[in-house]
Amino acid sequence: MNPLVERWLEHDLDEADSEALRLLLETDPSVRAELVAAVRERHLFAATAHQVQAARDTVGMEEADGTALPAEPRHPSRRKRPSHGRRAIPWPWLAGAAVAAAAGLVIMLRWSPAPPSDALPIAADATGQGPTIVRADGGRDAVGPLRAGDELVAERAGRLALRDEATVLELAAGSRLRLDDAAQGWSFSLRQGTVDVQAAPQRAGRQGRIATDLGVATVVGTRFQVALVDGITRLSVGEGSVRFHGFDQDRQAGPERLVEAGRFTVAGPVLPEGIWTQHTGERLLNGDAAQGLRHWYVAKTDLGSIAVVPTGGVEGGPWWRMEGAPRLEQRIPTVAGVRYRCTAHLRIDRITVPRTWGGVRILAVDDRQADRWRELAVGDPLIMTTDGWRTVELPFTAVGAASRIIVEVFSDGRYAAGADAVSVVPVDAEPDR
Amino acid sequence: MDPDDPRRDAIVKAAFRYREGLLCHAYAILRDWNTAEDVVQDAFLVVVRKWQDCHDITGVFPWVRQMVTFRAMDVLRSRGRTRGNLALAETIGRVMESGLDADEADAQGRLKDALATCMQDLDRRSLDLLVGFYWQRRSCDELAASQSRTVNAVRLVLSRLRTRLRDCLGQRVGDEVVATALGREP
After folding, report:
1. Whole-angstrom Cα distance, residue A293 to residue A291?
2. Model ipTM?
3. Considering only alpha carbons, which residue of chain A is nearest residue B44?
4. CA A50 to chain centre
5. Cα of B178 to nearest chain A Cα, Å
6. What is the CA A147 to chain-centroid distance, rounded?
7. Is residue A213 within 8 Å of residue A248, measured between CB atoms?
8. Which of A59, A66, A154, A267 is the most buried (most CB within 10 A)?
């Protein structure tokens, strides 16, 4: 390589050298080609390494000892997760449970097949449309006491009452609910669908619990609902309060949350594309709202932990979907002149009306005047396929004390879109503009 | 004009397709990755707002590149660069224009995707070395101190990483494509 080009690459040219290189570039095509190739190589190594490193930092996959990563970048939702069928319990879980039990604390969930325990007498609803009981040995009954390992399968929506207490379980059509334990109250795990629980206050020493792969709700004496929707666990509380623990990917319980009446909690390895707007609440990712989400989803409006701005068409049940042109937005404190990098994982799925243009994008806007936003940056808007998660980077330099990060659908189609693991972190380098 | 015009999407999409090539162009003028990213972002904002000004979809790349060039030169002027530096930057802008057309700018994005896959196999230390040297522009002395290696070891590792990644890139996109884009291996 020409030594002047080499030194230019190393930022090692004085005024005279700069002029010499300029003249050389004007006259020598081979030097021009060298410079272009060198810049392209620099760009590839610099930008790609930076991007790969940022992606690893975002999803927290790297190992301190430099363990090599898998061949393909993976979204947090695709990290090692327990499957529905597994029964193995990590030893830290058992150890933690033992310690907590010894301390007389309430341990939330026991996931392994429970040993035989006391039967749970039930009474089917007067409508006679209660769920079928599928016994642990494969037998089926319409009525009769439930034992640990039995599963309630509701082909149609149905309800049943726990006979010794005024607790009613309503299962939505297609739901499956398994009794894990009945020795100290009742402990169900929701395998599929939705269960509405009208729970009586539990007697001393007894507990009622509904668990999923992603968390466990403990009855305090209340009316609440646990639902599995698209791999997300949603707990919403109508009356009273419910204790809730989210699980991380290793089934370690996050901090306990007391979910009060009128509030919800959503837990999942992937955040849902919408929220139940009738309640306020928070979202948990991998067991804890703070984990993985960093500055995203902090309280802003009456909607709780996230602002949903339905400026476009929103349809379908109790869930907001990013269809039409609604958007998710978050106001974050920033320092004017400091450079930030926003990283988000976006996807599109469940297309109901195919798009002819548009997609999902993230943008950053200045928040100095809420009604007069100034765009700071826009991310790649080419998130338009259903081939899984795409990682989008959005660097921007703040111009005020606050900025807003917006994830929005802009399209003529109708489809559900999701955003996950959105992070906004200051960039180390000093801004120089 | 209807802001939902499908042409808007086509133009914006086209502009984003050239992002990596535009970043190369901006970096060559500015010599700073962060500022280059900002300049390209500024240009994209103009594209999103003033896409109607682009009358020919095939002319998106030169249109955006021109914006990037103007903005980058503005930045250099605002930093009080000497006349000599500005003259060199202008010349380099022209060199990049002639050496990195729309096709090559598009190819730069594909090369980056391929290289990202190659880099997935690197351990954290190697990746840190590449980021430190290429993105943060840290010297080999600094990198040697931070990684408890000798300076020569850092140079050697960087050289081997370059060779390994070029080989991987060649396997993925073809040696000729790599040679065309990055020149022959010295």
Report:
1. 6
2. 0.91
3. A378
4. 25
5. 10
6. 34
7. no
8. A267
